[in-house]
Specification:
By secondary structure, the protein is an alpha/beta fold. The chain folds into three domains: 164 residues, Alpha-D-Glucose-1,6-Bisphosphate, subunit A, domain 3 (Alpha-D-Glucose-1,6-Bisphosphate, Chain A, domain 3, 3-Layer(aba) Sandwich); 240 residues, Alpha-D-Glucose-1,6-Bisphosphate, subunit A, domain 3 (Alpha-D-Glucose-1,6-Bisphosphate, Chain A, domain 3, 3-Layer(aba) Sandwich), CATH 3.40.120; 108 residues, 2-Layer Sandwich (TATA-Binding Protein). The mean pLDDT is 96.
Length: 565
C-alpha cells in the first residue's frame, strides 16, 4: 500500500469527530505532505519512537502510540505471567500530548493484564530509568522527545535491566508491533477504573524521595569543611522536568547561593523562552548568561526537557562565560570522581569507566593515570550502561560512563544519562575547587597541561524528510566508496568500519579514521534525529594549534560529503 492509499484508508477508518481527521482533510491537496506522513510507519528502534506530532503513520499520535504499546504488551505476554505481574513503569515529560500518551499507554497495558505504574505528573528520564530497578518491573516507557523542538514527541522503551532496549529486545518488540492494526488491534481499558481495581498504580512521593536520596549518595565530597557552599551558581531546566529533583538535591546538599533562571524554571511545552531546548547549543544559555552577569555566577548549568542531558558554561579568567562541549565536561567529571575517590581511599583497584566510540580519548588518558580502565561502547546509554553487567561479571567496578553528546551516568543503578546527578557532581566539583582557590576553568587548563591540548568538534548536518534520509545514505555510501588516504595533509593510518562490528563492538553504521599525527574522526547517521554526525579530535602541543589542525580536518571532510547531492 502506497502513501496515498494509506492516507485514504485512515480517512475511511477514522472517527470523523477526531481532530486528526480534520487535520488530514486539510492536507488533501498536498501530495508531498501526504507522502511524508504515510510513506512508512514511524521507525521503532533501540531508542523507541520519535517524530513530529501529526496525523499519519510516520508521526507521533495516539494511533502510533497505541500500536507500539499493544505490540510491547504482546511481547511481554510472550514472556509469561511473571513478566506481566512485574509490570511496566511509565513516565512522561512536559511536551504536548505527553500526559495523554502516558495515560493511554497505561490503559492499554492494563487492558492486556499487565500491571502499570505511573507517576502523578511529569518526571525526568533518569528517574524513570531508576524506577525500573526500584520497582523490579519487566519494562519501562517514557513519553518524551528529549531535546527535540517543541513540535516533536517520542516514546522511549526500556527493559528489566533498566537500560533502553537492546537491539535484540527491540527487534522482538518490533515483530509484535508490526502485527498490530492501529485501529482495530489495540485493547483499551478505562483508566480510572483500572486505578480503582489496582491494575494501574499511581506512585506516591516516596518514590521521588528514593531517587533523590540515591542521587545524593553519589557525592564525592560534602559539607562546609570540604566545599564552599556559598559558590554562586545558576541552573535552568529549560522549561522542562528538571526543577523538582534538582531543587531538592541542591537544597538538601546545603548549597546556599544557587538560583533558577526564573523564566525557565516551570514546564512549558512550547519552550517559549528558548525555542530549541537543547543545552548542547550555547544559544540555550542566553538567559542564564544575563542572570549570571547580574549575580556574578561562577557556573551556569542546564538540563534538557526530560532531564537526561546536561551542559555547562564556565566563567573564564577574563570573566566571560565559555560554553563547554560534552567532552570537556566529561574530562572534569572523570578527573573529579577519580581524584576524589583516590584521596578518600575508595578508588577500587579494578575500577572501570565507559565512553562511546565517538567520544574523546583524553578521558582514557585521565583514567589510565589513576589505574582505571576505560571501555568503549556504541553511542547511546543502552550501550554504555549495557556494559555494566559485563564489567561486573569480569570483576570490574563501574565508576562512570559518558558520551560527548552531554550525557553522563554516575551510578550503576541509573542506567541512562542523568542530568540531575551530573549537575550535582559538577556543582560539587566547582564548590570543592573554589575552597582551594581554583575555578573549574582553572582545572580544565591544568588537565590540558597535564594530558595534552585536545581539541574537539562535533558538527552535524540536519537533513529532514524522505529526501534528507536518502541523502544521508548516499553520503555514507560515497565515503565508503571514496575512502580518503590523506586529510588536511595528514596521512590516514587506519580506518575502522563498524558496519559489521569490530572487535567486541557490535555492528553499527559508523566509520572511524585514525591519522598519523594521532588525530582521528568519525562519521555516523543519527539513530534518533534527521542528522548525519561528525566527530573530530586532535591533540597538539597547544590549544590553539589543536583547534587549527582540527578545523582543517573538519573542513576537508565536510567538503567531501557535501559533494553528495
Amino acid at each position: 500500500m502506497n502513501a496515498l492509499e494509506k492516507y485514504q484508508e485512515w480517512l475511511e477508518r477514522m472517527d470523523h469527530n477526531d481532530p486528526l481527521y480534520q487535520e488530514l482533510l486539510d492536507i488533501a491537496d498536498d501530495e508531498t505532505e501526504i507522502e511524508e506522513r504515510f510513506y512508512q510507519y514511524i521507525t521503532f528502534g533501540t531508542a523507541g519512537l520519535r517524530g513530529k506530532l501529526k496525523a499519519g503513520t510516520n508521526c507521533m499520535n495516539v494511533y502510533m502510540v497505541g500500536r507500539a504499546t499493544q505490540g510491547i504488551a504482546n511481547f511481554i505476554k510472550k514472556h509469561g505471567q511473571e513478566a506481566m505481574d512485574k509490570g511496566v513503569v511509565i513516565a512522561h515529560d512536559c511536551r504536548h500530548k505527553s500526559r495523554e500518551f502516558c495515560l493511554l499507554t497505561a490503559s492499554i497495558l492494563a487492558a492486556n493484564g499487565i500491571k502499570a505504574y505511573i507517576y502523578p505528573s511529569l518526571r525526568t528520564t533518569p528517574q524513570l530509568a531508576y524506577s525500573i530497578g526500584m520497582l523490579h518491573t519487566i519494562s519501562g516507557i517514557n513519553i518524551t522527545a528529549s531535546h527535540n523542538p517543541q513540535d516533536y514527541n517520542g516514546y522511549k522503551a526500556y527493559w528489566e535491566d533498566g537500560c533502553q532496549v537492546s537491539s535484540g529486545i527491540a527487534d522482538g518488540m518490533l515483530e509484535e508491533i508490526e502485527k498490530v492494526d492501529e485501529f482495530d488491534g489495540v485493547l483499551k481499558a478505562d483508566f480510572d477504573e483500572c486505578v480503582k481495581e489496582g491494575k494501574i498504580v499511581v506512585l506516591d512521593e516516596s518514590y521521588d524521595r528514593r531517587y533523590i536520596d540515591h542521587v545524593k549518595s553519589l557525592a564525592i565530597h560534602d559539607g562546609d569543611d570540604e566545599l564552599d557552599l556559598d559558590i554562586p551558581l545558576i541552573y535552568t531546566p529549560l522549561n522542562g522536568c528538571g526543577k523538582m529533583p534538582f531543587e531538592a538535591v541542591m537544597n538538601e546538599r546545603g548549597f546556599r547561593n544557587w538560583r533558577f533562571v526564573e523564566e525557565q524554571k516551570d514546564p512549558d511545552p512550547d519552550f517559549t523562552t528558548v525555542g530549541y531546548p537543547n543545552p548542547e547549543d550555547p544559544k540555550a544559555f542566553k538567559l542564564s548568561e544575563e542572570l549570571g552577569r547580574k549575580v556574578g555566577a561562577e557556573l551556569l548549568m542546564a538540563t534538557d526537557p526530560d532531564g537526561d542531558r546536561f551542559a555547562i558554561e564556565l566563567r573564564n579568567d577574563k570573566g566571560e562565560y565559555v560554553p563547554l562541549n560534552g567532552n570537556q565536561t566529561g574530562y572534569l567529571l572523570v578527573n573529579y570522581i577519580l581524584e576524589g575517590r583516590k584521596d578518600a581511599g575508595t578508588l577500587p583497584s579494578n575500577g572501570a569507566m565507559v565512553k562511546s566510540i565517538v567520544t574523546s580519548t583524553m578521558s582514557t588518558e585521565i583514567a589510565k593515570a589513576y589505574g582505571v580502565k576505560m571501555f568503549e561502547a556504541l553511542t547511546g546509554f543502552k550501550n554504555i550502561c549495557g556494559r555494566i553487567p559485563f564489567l561486573k561479571e569480569n570483576g570490574y567496578t563501574y565508576l562512570f560512563g559518558y558520551e560527548e553528546s552531554i550525557g553522563y551516568a554516575a551510578s550503576p543503578e541509573i542506567r541512562d544519562k542523568d542530568g540531575i546527578s551530573a549537575g550535582m557532581l559538577v556543582a560539587e566539583a566547582a564548590a570543592y575547587y573554589r575552597k582551594q582557590g581554583k575555578t573549574l576553568f582553572d582545572v580544565l587548563q591544568e588537565l590540558y597541561q597535564k594530558y595534552g591540548y585536545y581539541a574537539e568538534d562535533e558538527p552535524n548536518l540536519i537533513l529532514e524528510g524522505i529526501e534528507g534520509s536518502a541523502r544521508i545514505k548516499r553520503m555514507m555510501t560515497y565515503v565508503r566508496e571514496n575512502l580518503p588516504t590523506e586529510v588536511a595533509g595528514i596521512k590516514v593510518e587506519k580506518i575502522v568500519d563498524y558496519i559489521n562490528g569490530y572487535e567486541d563492538i557490535p555492528a553499527s553504521n559508523v566509520l572511524r579514521f585514525y591519522l598519523e599525527d594521532g588525530s582521528w574522526f568519525a562519521i555516523r547517521p543519527s539513530g534518533t534525529e534527521p542528522k548525519i554526525k561528525f566527530y573530530f579530535y586532535t591533540c597538539q602541543d597547544s590549544r590553539e594549534k589543536a583547534l587549527n589542525v582540527n578545523g582543517r580536518i573538519k573542513g576537508d571532510i565536510l567538503a567531501l560529503v557535501n559533494r553528495v547531492e
